[in-house]
Amino acid sequence: MSRRNRFWKTNDSDTVQPQEQEGQTAPVASEERPPEGSVITLHLGGKNPFKCYNSYLIVGSKHVLVDPGPPGTAGELYQQLSRNHISLGDIGLIVITHGHPDHFGSASQLKEWTQAPLAVHELDAEYVNFGSVPVLKPVTRLGSLLKSLFSIKSEPVEPDIILHDGDKLGRYAGRGRVILTPGHTAGSISILMPDGVCIVGDLLMRGLRSSTPSVPWFAEDAAQARDSLQRLVNAGAKTMLAGHGGPFDVQDLARKFSWLEVAEGGAAAEEDEREERGAGESRESRAAGPGEAGGDRPHRRRPRRRRPQGFNGPSGDQPGAANPNH
Fold first, then answer.
1. Residue 174: left (phi > 0), alpha (psi -120 to 50), or beta?
2. How many structural domains compose the chain?
């Protein structure tokens, strides 16, 4: 597999559209699109709570499709895009958060339909390129019970773009910054948006309830997954968008996971507090009188105002006169 990034712009005439099904119309571009940088959640997998998946669309001048879903869900994803008035030709990039088939199983079909390049981190590119299934190591009870549901094979698809930690998707399409968050797999990535929304793949997963957060059901390194979640919080993530369940607010995560450290109000709020505190101390210093704490003002001007009337000589020539330069 070539590790050279390949990116090309597509024309509408080159876009391969899926065959229309009975009662289904091709998606058209919306006249009023969602705001730049917003994220649309696309629910896949039906009503079974443990077989459903979340795919995400980062909306921009060219949309970024994140995790197209497991094998056999391309048509369902197509319908979801149609309901949101998203044209396949407007998708400029497909990103895979990690190399598990339930996240990239439909990537081959979506890549053909959209003609958009496929991007994955270099450490998980092998799984995507060969359609192989990594070893699943359950770390929760749900992982042990549902392991068979995730032991699926997928059609291989060759990545076009190899991602690295710190890459900005704006160089290809859409917005967002890539953050390497290993633990679930070695090449798991998250995409952090400027507003604090963060697509995390399976770094977080649902518990028995969709709204209840859990550590990943499977993890190659559970301790590393914890470190990765802490890294996202430190980077400014506020809302976590997971592949299964969610969304999850970081404050709720802090109440669930005692080991997760979340600054009250975030780093930006702490900086504002420091600035406000500094401004308050400065005002107190100006208001304080001589001899008071924080009230030491330059005293070189005070003797000049207290010079005796009728003084004509230079300050250095008279005994008791203060040196203005002192």
1. left
2. 1
